[in-house]
């Protein structure tokens, strides 16, 4: 090698060393599970294929789990460019870190991208609020970030040439461009058509076209980017992968429903197989499929079988979760059954969101409607697959009555397994985050803690917030609060099983509607005015939910006698306290039934004994036999006529030996979608009198 070549090599290495890139995709470690930073991984994998970037920069570190800011800063060395992948759960943490990086290294280029960064039509004022951010990336970020890095290598970068981003006025280097912008006011014409001028000094370039060939993009799993992260990680691993990107639907509460992502792009099958192999070899426990409609494509059957094959032959991945395709029940059943039999997935989600047609129209949810729900439930249950319905509280055009009626209607249609009911959040890049949409439906939005449960509240980051919709033109804030309390009562009562069999028996034997039963139960708890077990549970939950709405406390409730500082979901906390106080709880339920319905006391006593036996008790031993004098079981499960009949039933479930935490974790938390609270019941003897 010549002296000149040696000099060039030295300068190249020195130059590269001085151009350190740091990437942030911060996630919380929940249940000892660490999520690999897929988004920034995709970005850097592409950047590594660009010669100028590969030669000009060194990827110093990827920060992918939450840790003290000062610890992060202490380990950073001369950052040249720092990129942040922004989500609702890490936004404020990213803001804090970015602010301190800019204060310590003023010449460092700070780039924000991801779902929490406002779209180009909503970016006005962004750089005034966050002056330490230099560039905001809109849409797919792989190519845009690589071009930013290339441009940053120049002595005088021209940021206005890069599509798919916004920059503050101070970043515009072309003087003619600046003058023309000021001269023309709101919109740049002539030779500078690619720039928009906003009064807040924000400049947005032309939109970045979608990646034309997603299949050609490199994989952070296959190029070795994550290998070191995996080696150094002491937690169980979660990995994200995608077979498609985009969604043909336009649901207004979803970022992917924007026009930008409506065309579906696909990955190659051999690439997906290779990623699954990597996950198996690296003992990834949990995989999340990021497709919006898994089951839509023909290749999804082959991918499903390949995932299951890897679990059977290599032991990993062990669990899989996805968002199922809508209105394609036959395809979904075929795939879900394969996952279910391999114990990789718990069942099928029916993402309905509302039973009110007016609501579905307002949110452009045209792909699923309540009219098909009964058909879907019958198909899924008939195939032996657990199914559950998802609803959202707070959608426009929903009323208190339609929300409560909708929940009860789902039950009337035969869905006793599970309903997931989630609070609506206004994400910035959805129509819900658009001021015009907010004004149209008179949405009131409050900033509060994200609806995270199953965390140690002493470790909850006080920075993070989400924007929760708490009222609309058709639902007042008090009505919204009332609905949240009804949701809690319904969830702990029916879908976590504490009174499910009571309500089903009364429905079948005495034609008492589910809506009537649960509305009366809520009134009964309200009238207790904080007294008795049920009154106390109602008061606790109502106060806790009120505190959540004003960001006074995080989501959920702590049951300190079971696990200190551990936040359970509201309904889970109530079930755990029911299990600690079964006698008083069921005595109050008996009082409630007697005060509202004309049921013979001996029948009611038998029913309550069946109810207590049918759900799993953490402090009882199994199997156990119980003798009944009425055909309670047949009335509930087979809609048989009530009659006196001696029946011996065997109840069989897991023995927890009084470990309420393990019971709560496995039954109420992990197992809620498959109704794990239920015991297996076998009839041993029937004698008709």
Name the features.
689 residues; four-stranded parallel β-sheet; alpha/beta; disordered N terminus; 25 helices; eight-stranded mixed β-sheet; Transcription Regulator spoIIAA
Give a quick summary of the entry:
The chain is of the alpha/beta class.
Characterization of the model:
The protein is an alpha/beta fold. Helix content is 41%, strand content 18%. It folds into 3 domains: 10-204, 3-Layer(aba) Sandwich (Rossmann fold), CATH 3.40.50; 235-247 and 255-343, 2-Layer Sandwich (Transcription Regulator spoIIAA), CATH 3.30.750; 431-689, no CATH class. The chain has 25 helices and 25 strands. α17 (477-495) packs across α19. The radius of gyration is 28 Å and the shape is globular.
Topology (SSEs and partners):
Blueprint lengths: L2 H16 L1 E8 L5 E3 L2 H10 L3 H6 L1 E8 L3 H7 L3 E7 L5 H14 L4 E5 L12 H4 L5 E3 L4 H11 L12 E4 L6 H10 L11 E2 L4 E3 L22 H6 L3 E6 L2 E2 L19 E2 L2 H13 L2 E6 L9 H16 L4 E3 L7 H13 L6 E6 L3 H6 L10 H10 L4 E7 L6 H13 L6 E5 L11 H6 L3 E5 L6 E2 L9 E6 L5 H19 L4 H11 L3 H14 L4 H18 L7 E2 L7 E3 L1 H11 L1 H15 L4 H14 L9 E7 L1 H7 L5 E9 L7 H10 L10 E9 L1
Parallel strand pairs: 1-3, 1-4, 2-10, 4-5, 5-6, 10-13, 13-14, 15-16, 16-17
Antiparallel strand pairs: 6-7, 7-9, 8-9, 11-12, 18-20, 19-22, 21-22, 23-24, 24-25
Helix pairs in contact: 2-7, 10-11, 11-12, 17-19, 17-20, 17-21, 18-23, 18-24, 19-20, 22-23
């Amino acid at each position: 090698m010549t002296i000149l070549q040696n000099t060039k090599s030295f300068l190249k290495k020195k130059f590269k060393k001085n151009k350190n890139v740091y990437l942030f995709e911060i996630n919380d470690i929940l249940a000892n599970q660490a999520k690999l930073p897929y988004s920034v991984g995709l970005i850097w994998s592409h950047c590594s294929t660009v010669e100028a970037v590969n030669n000009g920069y060194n990827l110093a570190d990827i920060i992918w789990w939450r840790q003290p800011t000062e610890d992060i800063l202490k380990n950073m060395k001369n950052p040249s460019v720092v990129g942040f992948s922004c989500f609702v759960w890490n936004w404020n943490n990213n803001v804090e870190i970015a602010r301190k990086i800019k204060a310590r290294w003023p010449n460092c280029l700070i780039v924000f991208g991801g779902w929490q960064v406002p779209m180009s039509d909503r970016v006005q004022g962004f750089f005034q609020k966050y002056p330490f951010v230099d560039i905001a990336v809109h849409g797919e970020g792989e190519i845009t970030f690589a071009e930013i890095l290339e441009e940053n290598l120049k002595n005088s970068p021209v940021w206005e040439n890069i599509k798919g981003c916004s920059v503050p006025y101070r970043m515009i280097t072309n003087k003619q461009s600046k003058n023309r912008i000021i001269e023309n006011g709101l919109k740049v014409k002539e030779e500078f058509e690619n720039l928009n001028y906003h009064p807040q000094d924000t400049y947005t370039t032309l939109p970045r076209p979608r990646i034309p060939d997603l299949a050609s993009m490199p994989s952070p799993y296959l190029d070795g980017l994550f290998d070191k992260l995996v080696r150094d990680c002491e937690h169980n691993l979660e990995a994200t992968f995608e077979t498609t990107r985009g969604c043909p639907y336009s649901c207004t509460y979803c970022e992917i429903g924007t026009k930008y992502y409506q065309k579906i792009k696909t990955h190659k099958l051999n690439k997906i197989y290779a990623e699954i192999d990597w996950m198996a070899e690296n003992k990834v426990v949990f995989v999340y499929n990021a497709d919006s409609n898994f089951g839509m494509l023909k290749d999804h059957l082959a991918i499903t079988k390949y995932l299951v094959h890897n679990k059977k032959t290599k032991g990993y991945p062990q669990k899989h979760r996805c968002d199922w395709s809508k209105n394609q029940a036959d395809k979904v059943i075929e795939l879900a059954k394969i996952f279910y039999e391999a114990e990789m997935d718990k069942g099928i989600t029916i993402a309905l969101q509302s039973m009110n047609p007016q609501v579905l129209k307002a949110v452009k949810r045209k792909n699923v409607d309540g009219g098909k729900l009964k058909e879907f439930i019958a198909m899924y249950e008939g195939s032996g697959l657990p199914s559950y319905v998802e609803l959202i509280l707070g959608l426009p055009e929903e009323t208190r009555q339609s929300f409560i009626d909708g929940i009860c209607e789902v039950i009337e249609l035969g869905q006793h397994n599970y309903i997931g009911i989630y609070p609506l959040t206004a994400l910035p890049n959805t129509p819900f985050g658009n001021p015009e949409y907010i004004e149209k439906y008179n949405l009131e939005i409050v900033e509060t803690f994200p609806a995270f449960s199953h965390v140690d509240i002493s470790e909850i980051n006080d920075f993070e917030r989400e924007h929760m919709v708490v009222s609309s033109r058709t639902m007042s804030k008090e009505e919204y609060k009332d609905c949240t309390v009804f949701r809690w009562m319904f969830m702990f009562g029916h879908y976590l099983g504490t009174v499910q069999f009571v309500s089903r028996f009364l429905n079948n034997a005495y034609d008492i509607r589910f809506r009537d039963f649960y509305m009366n139960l809520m009134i009964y708890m309200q009238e207790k005015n904080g007294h008795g077990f049920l009154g106390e549970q109602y008061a606790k939950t109502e106060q806790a939910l009120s505190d959540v709405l004003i960001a006074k406390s995080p989501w959920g409730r702590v049951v300190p006698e079971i696990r200190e500082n551990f936040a359970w979901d509201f309904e889970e906390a109530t079930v755990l306290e029911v299990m600690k106080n079964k006698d008083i709880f069921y005595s109050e339920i008996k009082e409630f039934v007697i005060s509202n319905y004309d049921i013979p006391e001996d029948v009611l006593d038998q029913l309550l004994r069946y109810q207590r036996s049918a759900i799993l008790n953490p402090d009882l031993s199994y199997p156990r036999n119980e003798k009944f004098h009425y055909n309670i079981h047949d009335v509930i499960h087979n809609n048989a006529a009530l009659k006196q009949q001696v029946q011996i039933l065997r109840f069989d479930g897991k023995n927890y030996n009084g470990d309420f935490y393990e019971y709560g974790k496995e039954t109420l938390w992990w197992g809620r979608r498959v109704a794990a609270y239920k015991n297996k019941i076998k009839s041993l003897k029937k004698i008709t009198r």
